[in-house]
From TrEMBL:
Coiled-coil region: 96-123
Compositional bias of kind Polar residues: 203-215
Domain of life the protein comes from: Eukaryota
Organism lineage: Eukaryota, Discoba, Euglenozoa, Kinetoplastea, Metakinetoplastina
Residue numbers spanned by region Disordered: 123-162, 201-230, 268-313
Ranges of biased composition (kind: Basic and acidic residues): 216-230, 279-290, 302-313
Leader sequence residues: none
Name of the protein in question: Uncharacterized protein
Keywords: Coiled coil
Amino acid sequence: MADESVDVSALVVAAINEAVQRRRRKNGDPLSRVVDGNRALRAQLFAAQQGDVSDAERVARSQLADNEASERAHVARMFKTETAVLQMDAKRERQARAADAERARLVEEHAEALRRLKAALDRDVAAVRSSPSAQRSRRATTAPSTTAATPAAPPRQASPARLRARELREEVDQLRQERTRQFAARLEDVEADFNATCEREQSAISAQAATQGSERSQRVKERADRERNTRVNDRVAVRAAQNRERSRALRTRTDELQKSVLLSREQFRAKSCDPYATRGEKSARPERSRTPAVSATAVDEAAEKEAEVERRR
């Protein structure tokens, strides 16, 4: 494990050094400019030391320190970049290995299914061959002939044993084909069931999403209605309060006006120069008709009507 870590570190360092050299060889590369500037500053520093110029030496030292810090920061950034690239390559390689392992697993499962099918067919063939009719035909085929064969005998027809063996081979082929068809039909049924299940689940998910969407829209509509009704009720309540306040002020002002009018009339009567009033008789001058006072009930009814009109609006 330690050897592997050392190898990876060496590869990372080599890659970073190569990238740094490649960047330095480019025209107008900031790192190459920094390196050239450092060389110039070192030359200036040497000249300043030789000429014993303290200010120039201090400036050159500060610039050289800044350039070296920028160079180290640039190298650190390139190291991080190269490390990220290597990590991405390793991640892609792990994903490729996982995909290869999954494909190998699927191939192994398919091969196992084929082996099970072949074993079932072999068992069926063995059962057919071990049947009593097959054994009789085999014994008839292997039994020695009792009659002497003549060299000039005409060609004979196929024996019943050969005919029976041919029939058995045909039956085995038919059985193998039937089993293959059954296996294919079973696979088709499984795929159809899987597709139907997927479609049902998809339709259920779609219906659930639609139901949730309709419920959500209904809730949003109800919330909007409640907020609108609340705003309307608030406006109506504010308008009703304003109307009550206005009616109260109107009643107060009306009472004050009535009191002022009555007081003015009393004062006018007291200061009047009516000759009949001086002799203790009632004045012959007709009194002016009083203005009927505004009823508080009428003011309240007017305020309620205005609030009702605002609520309907």
